Amino acid sequence: MSWLTRGRARIQQILGRRDVPDNLWTKCRGCGTMLYTKEFEANLSVCPACGHHERIGPAARFALLFDGAVFERIPVEMPADDPLKFRDLKRYPERLKAARAATGEADALALAKGTIGTVPSVVGVQDFAFLGGSMGVGVGAAFVRAAEVALAERRPFVMVTAAGGARMQEGILSLMQMPRTTVMVARLKEAGVPYVVVLTDPTTGGVTASYAMLGDVHIAEPGALIGFAGARVIESTIREKLPEGFQRAEYLLAHGMVDMVVRRHELAATLGRLLRHLTRTPEPA
Fold first, then answer.
1. For the chain, what are the domain ranges?
2. Measured between alpha carbons, how far is 183 from 177 in angstroms, rounded to an integer?
3. Among 120, 139, 160, 227, which has the highest number of CB atoms less than 10 A from its own CB?
């Protein structure tokens, strides 16, 4: 038993369990430092000790990116929950119900619109907490909806990715979202509507093989895992040891796979400058 566990147990004995919240402290997944949760969240969920960027959900991401944290959610008509009647250890609808209860989102991709650096924009955010951010028909529907709004209103589309790949419970239907989203990206490019991708930890599988790598500009958060297959799968296939930092944002930047690596504290300002440049919007007074 660690000193923290012993200390917590002792405090609970003295004050009573209700007086000691379970989420008072957060352990950094990068360096293991115990961080006071309120201070950690105030620092945009970035560890002050090692700079590790923890995963954050759509609500926090929207508040971070939009000017003054002011935005409007874009509703999406969700498709049928269980098209293949899939069941593993649990029925698929049960997994969806639990994910929705835990995240408050209808599916793994949430949409909103507002201004970023004074530029009216559409933002999509994948939530890794929702079944690993997996890409299913619902994610495809949300992506299409975001692109349609961007096209109709001539707004840049900023896509923030975080996914473990396609959603196995939807089989071939999940894989069909790859060409579906690719077609929408092509429509954006044909119309001259900017499409910017922000790659966060992790972005893998079919998401990387489709819309995550089709942006006009690719920005990555520090240390983000970005790739298609896992490192162990690649090593076992090529029978070679992979380079240090392989599939991390900094490695991809050095090898031309992403355009820039930007700390979370600087992301909104960087996107604002970029979107103003892409849309030829004057600098704010």
1. 1-54, 55-279
2. 10
3. 139
User: Torsion over CA of 103, 198, 190 and 179, rounded to 10 degrees?
Assistant: -60
Q: Contact 72/62 with Cβ under 8 angstroms?
A: no
Q: Which CATH number does 55-279 carry? A: 3.90.226.10
Q: How far apart are CA 242 and CA 146, in angstroms?
A: 37
Query: What does pLDDT average to in each consecutive run of 10 residues of the chain (285 residues)?
Result: 61 57 87 95 96 97 98 95 91 96 97 98 98 97 98 98 95 96 98 98 97 98 95 92 94 97 98 98 87
Asked if the bond preceding 202 is cis, omega within 30° of 0, the reply is yes
Q: What is the dihedral of CA 228, 183, 143, 218, to 10 degrees?
A: 50
Main-chain phi, psi angles of 4, to 5 degrees: -65, -40
Report the C-alpha gap between 275 and 284 in whole angstroms: 13
Distance CA 135, CA 108 (A): 7
In sequence order, the 6+-apart residues with CB closer than 8 A to the CB of 90 are none
Q: What is the pTM of this model?
A: 0.91
Residue 144, both tokens? 């299409």
